[in-house]
């Protein structure tokens, strides 16, 4: 039971990082994970420039890159936005046109992000960096762990911030800067494993307790059902299990792409794909005071390999898988697809599609 198909899957390269001095672009295969029927459409270079200003301001206030970014009329992940910014810089450098379109691709997180380099990159250096990052993503389907440049290794968060500064400069001055100063932004740890403790501080969990896009935690129907399902239950585990079991047993699976109904609509119509199943699980859990988040991955089912979304619930210091799309699954246990071979593309407080 999956909601997003993988298209154009090539041989996966084992490369872990990039060297910005390497300008080779003749790759034999690409590993692009794209959602069939995905609502994400091409954006203009101008859309990316406008969004980059927002990202720059956010990064300078929070010392982090936002997990999702609105580009034009759609949301993309920060990993996707790094790719879009790299392509936008290359487009501007090539012809100066802001109307040139860029197609978003699905980009997974860097598995072992590292690099603390700071300093100044000349225009030729950052153009090479943008080209290398874009080519790495197109080849590997994920962010690099770091980029090696003339000033040393730069981590993905710092790469994104640097690119946002370049595009913000272009927005204000209608030209690319002669140089850019790289500042170190350490990557945030959002976690990807169903049993990884991750950030368990109060501040780290707050984002997993509030209403987000299509997760209407404060809606009366969500609040009422969450209260009904958890009434009289003392333990966090029992509350999480009651919510998971209800969604699994009362919402029929229906194949379509991305979000269609959201949590409230799913509760109303009692039918959903994987995205909307996750929306309802997450909304009910958060309404009951249980931290909950979304996971997006590439999963192998008996029928084939697909993009898939499921929820995770935080119980007693650990994250537990909550894939309510199949009666074969239970809280913390997935039997409907092969967890040993799954590729995690992202973990989110707010699902961006």
Automatic annotation (TrEMBL):
Residues 266-326 form the Transglutaminase-like domain. It comes from Methanothermobacter tenebrarum. Gene3D superfamilies: 3.10.620.30. It holds the Pfam family Transglut_core. Signal peptide: none annotated. This is Transglutaminase-like domain-containing protein. The lineage of its organism: Archaea, Methanobacteriati, Methanobacteriota, Methanomada group, Methanobacteria.
């Amino acid at each position: 039971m999956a909601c997003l198909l993988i298209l154009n899957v090539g041989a996966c390269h084992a490369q872990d990082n990039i060297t910005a001095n390497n300008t080779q672009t003749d790759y034999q295969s690409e590993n692009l994970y794209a959602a069939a029927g995905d609502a994400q459409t091409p954006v203009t270079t101008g859309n990316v420039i406008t969004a980059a200003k927002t990202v720059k301001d956010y990064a300078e206030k929070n010392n982090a890159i936002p997990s999702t970014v609105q580009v034009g009329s759609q949301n993309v992940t920060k990993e996707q936005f790094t790719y879009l910014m790299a392509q936008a810089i290359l487009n501007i450098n090539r012809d100066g046109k802001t109307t040139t379109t860029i197609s978003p691709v699905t980009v997974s997180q860097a598995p072992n992000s590292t690099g603390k380099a700071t300093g100044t990159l000349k225009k030729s250096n950052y153009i090479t960096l943008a080209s290398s990052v874009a080519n790495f993503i197109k080849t590997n389907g994920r962010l690099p762990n770091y980029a090696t440049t003339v000033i040393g290794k730069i981590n993905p968060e710092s790469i994104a911030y640097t690119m946002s500064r370049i595009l913000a400069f272009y927005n204000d001055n209608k030209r690319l800067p002669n140089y850019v100063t790289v500042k170190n932004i350490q990557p945030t740890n959002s976690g990807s494993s169903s049993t990884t403790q991750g950030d368990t501080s109060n501040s780290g969990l707050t984002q997993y307790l509030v209403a987000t896009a299509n997760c209407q935690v404060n809606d009366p129907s969500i609040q009422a059902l969450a209260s009904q399902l958890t009434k009289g239950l003392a333990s966090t585990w029992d509350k999480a299990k009651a919510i998971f079991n209800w969604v699994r047993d009362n919402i029929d699976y229906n194949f379509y792409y991305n979000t269609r109904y959201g949590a409230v609509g799913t509760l109303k119509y009692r039918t959903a794909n994987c995205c909307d199943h996750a929306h309802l699980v997450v909304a009910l859990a958060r309404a009951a005071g249980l931290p909950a988040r979304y996971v997006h991955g590439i999963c192998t089912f008996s029928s084939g390999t697909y993009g898939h979304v499921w929820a995770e619930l935080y119980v007693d210091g650990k994250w537990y898988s909550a894939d309510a799309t199949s009666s074969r699954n239970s809280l913390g246990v997935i039997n409907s697809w092969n967890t040993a071979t799954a590729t995690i593309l992202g973990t989110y407080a707010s699902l961006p599609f």
